[in-house]
Structures are given as C-alpha cells and as structure tokens.
Specification:
- 2 copies of one chain form a homodimer.
- By secondary structure, chain A is mainly alpha-helical.
- Chain A folds into 2 domains: 152 residues, no CATH class; 335 residues, Neurolysin, domain 3.
- Helix content of chain A is 64%, strand content 2%.
- Chain A has 20 helices and 3 strands.
- A 3-stranded mixed beta sheet of chain A has the order 1-3-2.
- The radius of gyration of chain A is 23 Å and the shape is globular.
- The termini of chain A are far apart.
- The relative contact order of chain A is 0.12.
- Chains A, B: Its cofactor is Zn(2+).
- Chains A, B: It comes from Palleronia pontilimi.
- Chains A, B: It is an enzyme of class 3 (hydrolase).
- Chains A, B: It catalyses: Release of a C-terminal amino acid with broad specificity, except for -Pro.
C-alpha cells in the first residue's frame, strides 16, 4: 500500500467515525429520552477522545511526507489533510481539552443567564472562554493575525481585512434600504390565523422535495432548532412548527434543505474522503440562503406556495401579490435568526466587529454589553430592551465560536453572486418555480458547485461557478430591486 | 491514580463507546434512511475497530496485575474485566477479523437463501462460519470443551453437561403436556378480527408502564423485529403490529420491557462499569420471560387486558376466561419465535443438540437439514414442509451464534424458579396484576436480582434471589398446573 493509500484509508475511517459522532448529536436533539442527558455527555466525550486521537495520529505527518498524489483531486485531498493536521498539531492537547471542558460548562451557564436575564452570571465563564480561544488563536496564527487564524477554521483563506472591506460596502446601503422600506407609504400585510402543525409538516415535506432533497438518503424530524446533520448518503434535517407562523417552518425547512442537498450532491467518488463535505461555512450558507431567499422567497415560488397553502388551509385573506409581500415583509426586531433578508446582515456585521475587538484585545468582556447596545442603537435606531434580546441571544461565543459569524454574511454575498450567474445560465427558472419545482435551479447549483465538495478553495469555487470574483454588488442590487418593487420605492 | 482507578476509567470509556455503537444499531433498525445502508456498514466497521482496539489494549493486563480491589464489588469488577480480557486475548486478531467478515457475508446469504428456499446457496458459507467458530472455540477452550467455551460467552459458568441434564428432564414432560393439551376435548377459542395498529401501540405503551418501564430513560418505536437496546439511562425498545394478531405486539412489548427494565434497574453506582449490565443471556431471558409469561399471560393480568382491549376495540366475542385461553392457546407450528410457552423449549432443545454436534464435529453442515427434519418429526409429530420453516428459520448460526440457543431455555427455567420465589415472597401480586399493575412483582425482581447487574455469577444470582439452586422443577410444575386448568386435563 502506498503512503497515499494508507493515508486515505485512515481518513476514511476518521470520516466514518465523524459521521457516527454527528448522528449521536442528531439523536440528542430529536430522539434521546430526557433522562439520558448525563450519560450521553459521557458517550459524546468518549467519541471526542477517539476522534481527537485519530486526528493527531503522528502517522499522518509521515504519510503526508511520503505521499505522491496521482492527479489534481489527490493533490487537493492532501492539501486538505495537511491543512487540518497542521491546525490540530499547533494546539497543545491540554489547551484543546480545556477549551472543550470550559465551553461545555459555558453553554449551560449561557442558557441559564439568558433565561434569567442575568448577564453577570455568564461574564466570568465567557471571559475564560475568550482567554482560551485567544491563546489558541496565538498558537494557530504562527505570527499572523489571531482573528484570521480562527476565521480560517470556518472559511479557509478568508481574512478579516477582505471581509471588512466587503462588509463596509454593505452596511450603508442595507441601512438606507431598510430605512426607505420601513418608511414607505405602502406596507405589506402580515399573514393572520393559526395553521395546524401536521399540515405545516406535510407542506414542508413537499417543499423539501421541490428543492431536490433526496428522502431515500435523509429524513425530516422535528426539533427545537432546525439543523442539517451528516453527509453522503445519510443527511438528515429538522424543522419546527409555530402555529401562527407557518413561514417559520417552511423557510427553516428550505434553508436546511439547502445545507443538506449540498452534502447529498457531493460527487459520490469523494464520499468519506477529506474532500467529501461542503468546503466552508460561507459556501454552505450560500446554498441554504439561495434556496431560502432568492429561490424560496421569490415571487414565482411564493405564487405556488400561496396556492398550496390555500389548498391546505382555505382562504388566506390575501392574493398572491399580497402573500409575496407578507413572506418578505421587513419589521423591527432584536433577534438575528428572526431577521429579514435586508436586516439580517446588519446583525452579523455588529457581531463581526465586536468579536474582532474581543479577540484583538481592544474590547473587554466586561464592556461588551455596553458596546453591543450602543452599536445596535446606531444601526437599528432603537435600544435593546433586555440582555436576551441583546448580546445574550446567540450561543456562539459561549461555545467558543469566534470567527464564525461573518460566514453568514459571506454566504449571503456568495448567494447573490450565484443567483446572478444562475439566472443568466438558466433563464427559465421562474417558470419552474411558479409550478413548485426548484430543481432546474438546484440542478445548476449541484453541477456548478455542490458536486465538487472540498476540491476547490471557497473563493475559487465561487469564481468557477459564476465566472467572476465574488463581490457584494450582486446581493445589494438584488435586494434593492426586490424591495423597491415590494415597497413601491 | 491507582491501577484500579485507571482500569475503571478505561472501562468506563469503553462502556460509553459500546453504548454509542449500540445506538447506531438501534438507529439502523428504526430511523436510518434506506439509502444509507452501505455507508452505515463502514460506520459500524469503524466503530468495531475502535472497540476492538480498546478491548485488547495491553495496558489492561498491566492494570489487572497491579490492581488491588478495595471491596467485594471491586473484586467482582476485576473478575469481569479479567474474564473478558482473557477471552479476547486468546483469539488471534486475524481470526476475530475473519469471523466478523465472514459472518457479515453469511447473514446476507442466509436471508437470501431463506427467502428463496434455497439451502444449497447457504451451506458453503455456513460451513466456513462453523469452521471459524470451531477454530475460535479451540483457542478459547484452552484444552477444555470447545462448546462450553462458546457457551461461556453468553452464560458464564454454564456447561453443556449441566444443561443437558436439565434439558433431558424437561423434554419428555413438555412433550407429554403438549400431547395431552392438543388432544384434549376442551380447546380454547382464537381471537377473531382486525385491530387498528395505532390502538395496539397505545395499549402497548400502557403495558410498558404497567411493567415498570421508565419512559424518561427510554422510548418505544416500531421495527421489523422487536428488540431492546442500550443500558443505564438510555434503554430503548421496539415493537411491531400485526392487524389480526394484537398479542404479537402486546407480548413482544412486555418481553422487551423485561429485558429493558433489567438494564434500567441495575444499581446506578454500577453504570458504565464492567458490572453495569445484565449478567448473562440466560438471566436476561429469565426477566423477559417472567414478565411476558408468568406475569403477562397469567389469568390475573389477562383479565385486566381483556377489559382494556374491549374498551379500545369493543366486544371481543369472549369473556375473560375465554380470553385467558386464547392468549395461552397451544397450536402446531414450525417457528420457534411464534411458539407457545410449552413448545418453545422443544424448539430450543433441538437446536442445542444439533449445534453441539456441529461444534463437536459429529455432524456435518451437509447433513444438518436431514438431522433437523428427523428430530423435528420426532419431537413435534409432523414433518417440516420447507427449509424456511426448518433449519433456515433462525439467523443465529449464520452470524456465528453457536452456544446462544440454550440460554433461551435456561432463561425459562430461571423464570420458573424466580416465579415460585416471587409468589411466596409477595403473595398478593395477582391482586395488582388484575388491576393492570405488575410493579409489586417487578419491584421484587428489581430488588432481588436486577439491581446487582453483573456482580454475582448467574447461578449464584438466582440462588440468592430464590434461596435455592436452580432446577427445572418449578417451571414444569407451573406449566403442568397452568395448562391442566386451561385444557381441563
């Protein structure tokens, strides 16, 4: 067996074990009996130990030294293994274990502090999490920028400087668009009524099928938080139902189908290999977002959804145009995950700037709530009322996810680029969407992007799919046009 | 950290990983998308590799040499670790891997041969499985009896000679009782009609609760084959529904609840330790069988079930006495898993004798079908009609489970002993059972037996619980009395 083959066999087993661990996480959120939580913690910790040992196996270094790639794909496999191995090796085992231990505690304290609106109970442990992640960032940065070193885990090759420039261009135009829309004379109505959860779930299954989700290699269950889990031939999603807000269920489902089909559509030849998954968080989010927003919230598809809903629930009290407005309605709010297409990125930009300051050492945890609230007032025009509507709303920092937030907006930017290329390449997608079929669009995404898995770095992948370097312009132009029409601007 | 503590920490992680692997098996039978089967095979194989490496970790030997037990429980922990470690070390890694590989192939070939009634397609691979297991038995026996060495994996301390004596006493009395019952003038009626699966499942949840199943630490799902999976705080069961045969669902559920509550009721102080599970297959089966038969199929409980069913399904066309007869009705049949309380053990005894001859080398795989059919005719009085009703009916031998079958009948014998002791210790159990509550009985089983996990060897455990060495007499006396009454013998 060549060194390359030995390395790939090792990585294949590692990938299989990562699937096992992921399935355990899925089970925890969907099936696990309540009383099993503590035991499950030990099971997860034992699996983490197994995975860590595999990822730091010193033979990986030997194999990498000796391996001779036979082609471009093999070269990319080695690039990916080396990237992951070098990152893992740079962090001392004791530090990695301490981060795992402290973030696990912090997650519980965060949940309690949020429920009790008691930020002071959370700040000490957050301070510890931040200190540990800053230490890790120093190890990873190897003399470079510590924040970039964290960001690189989620978005290989991205830098805060590039993102800052892109986000800087987004912010004023998003604020201006939001202000014009909320101040417009014409305001869309909201959907009224309550909608049977069983019917919502039935429609959400139709939506998943409409967007190309392969039920033979996946399943949909209910969970508190919608998510997608697994890769290859076993990619499961969850959704939730809120009786008075069926869009929550429907657009969560389409969003997760975007993540899930990306995983399902990776070339089977790459399955369980280092390149066998979506390439980055930003590209992943570009898929979930283009499915959810550009395709799912477009007038063509909401026209079909309007009919499907009236079939299930009777008269909705609005025609297809009104329904399109209701789906896309902008409104004031504190919560990122509930924000509309325009304001969502403003929530992300706030977090990006704050976490860079935290990692850079120019903002202390003790001053964070004040900084958050000041920035929120500036960007949104009204004050945060409670900590759970402010800096306590997201779990990310509690579990150490610094450098993750910007990938949400980067995903939206990529989605803008991809949508422009898609509409040029497949001009008749609206005709299919209007009949409840998104697959001409999702087939193009599969063939242009999803099938490559991790073969090309994120920016190169977007360039290959769109023929251009990614910029924020297509997203902004799309948003301006869409909301100008809805609000009569 | 002492050697004992280090060993226990290692075993605890091993037990946690075994839980993960078991949950993966549960998922495969209940939740897994159809298209994920091949990928799942790789995931399971990777987990097997992880578990095998842990079980053969050479440090276990060092720790065992150095460990000093502080008390009786610690001594029992070490006994159990040594037992498992010595067994594992005696089998060369290559042989263990080959057995895993070949039995995996054999299972598929068995299923196909059974479906096609084509035994010739299965015999070559069965021959290979048998040869490998005979080789393994030689390694394990260390000069002793090879069959005993295999049996010891499922029933520590049991020997074929002891079982043979016990089973020899059972056989003529079971045959005689069966012949008298089937020849009796009075024959119970059968239940007629079809019964909504959803209602069956609702009743089966009541049954699980009636027998003390802790839903907070478990769940019930549907699967092709009923089973119990997991230990400690996450013990799940499955059941199935057959529209015209609700007893299939109900008694499968009670049976699996017997297995599951045994696991749930082990002393939490033993959780995830080498003693933290049921001690043997025979004792496990004693629990499932006493729940299902002595308690669940007794007149007191079927009286309650009769009322519960009439509440759900309307008039059943029989009174409580007739219903009791219908639940316990003897009938001709080829299939072990469908057999009644009296004839079930005859099916097992046939397999026990045949597999001893196979392992002992006095029966060749090529002659097995003939031997099976001749013995079946002798014990049951009519000829096997098709291979799937004969020696192809069970998966056990295909997957290498030689030495497992006798634990089914041993479990019934133990159940007989326990039931005699239980009725003496808790004289009023029938009053509770008649009101749909088995917990005074199951509480006694928990306190007398289940809570000890693996602390005492099987026979000693039964002796402690019953005050007597186990014999077949209580089971036979119970069956004679029960069926004499039902059939008016």
């Amino acid at each position: 067996m060549t060194a390359y083959d030995a390395l790939m066999a090792h990585q294949r087993e590692l990938a299989a074990l990562e699937q096992v661990s992921g399935r355990l996480g899925w089970d925890q959120e969907t099936m696990m009996p309540r009383g099993a939580a503590e035991q499950r913690g030990e099971e997860m910790a034992a699996m983490s130990g197994v995975l860590h040992a595999r990822r730091t196996d010193p033979r990986i270094g030997d194999w990498l030294d000796a391996a001779e790639p036979a082609d471009e794909v093999a070269r990319a496999q080695l690039r990916e293994v080396r990237r992951a191995f070098e990152r893992t090796c740079r962090v001392p085992a004791g530090l990695a274990a301490e981060i795992a231990r402290v973030t696990s505690i912090a997650q519980g304290q965060w949940a309690e502090a949020r429920a009790n609106e008691a930020p002071a109970d959370f700040l000490p442990v957050l301070d510890r999490v931040l200190a540990l992640r800053r230490e890790e960032a120093q190890c990873l940065a190897d003399g470079g920028d510590p924040y970039d070193a964290l960001l690189d885990a989620y978005e290989p090759g991205a830098t805060a400087a590039t993102l800052d420039q892109m986000f800087g261009a987004l912010r004023p135009r998003l604020v201006a668009l939001r202000d014009r829309a909320l101040g417009a004379a014409r305001q869309p109505a909201t959907l009224q009524g309550t909608f049977d959860p069983a019917d919502q779930l039935e429609i959400s299954r139709d939506l998943a099928a409409a967007f190309g989700y392969d039920f033979r290699r996946g399943r949909i269950d209910r969970a508190v938080h919608p998510f997608s889990s697994g890769s290859g031939d076993d990619v499961r999603i969850t959704t939730r139902t809120v009786a008075h807000d069926p869009f929550n269920c429907f657009y969560s489902t389409i969003h997760e189908v975007g993540h899930a089909t990306y995983e399902q559509n990776v070339d089977p030849a790459l399955a369980l290999s280092p390149l066998g998954r979506g390439v980055s968080m930003g590209v992943h989010e570009s898929q979930s977002r283009i499915y959810e927003n550009q395709l799912g919230r477009g007038a063509a598809f909401t026209g079909w959804l309007h009919g499907r809903m009236e079939g299930a629930f009777g008269d909705l009290g609005m025609d297809a145009d009104g329904f399109y407005g209701a789906v896309n309605r902008l409104q004031k709010g504190y919560i990122r995950t509930e924000a509309d297409e325009v304001q969502y990125n403003l929530h992300v930009l706030l977090r990006f700037d704050l976490e860079r300051a935290l990692i850079g050492g120019t903002l202390a945890v003790a001053d964070m709530e004040e900084a958050w609230n000041a920035r929120f007032l500036r960007d949104f025009g009204y004050a945060v009322d409670t900590p759970s509507n402010g800096f306590l709303q997201d779990v990310h920092w509690a579990v150490g996810l610094f450098g993750y937030f910007p990938t949400y907006t980067l995903g939206n930017v990529y989605a803008g680029c991809l949508y422009r290329a898609l509409t040029a390449a497949v001009p008749q997608i609206d005709r299919s969407l209007a009949s409840g079929d998104a697959t001409p669009a999702t087939d193009w995404l599969r063939d242009s992007l999803q099938r490559f898995g991790g073969q090309f770095p994120p920016r190169e992948l977007i360039e290959r799919a769109t023929g251009q370097a990614p910029t924020e312009a297509p997203l902004l132009d799309y948003l301006d046009a869409k909301f100008a029409e809805i609000y009569g601007l």
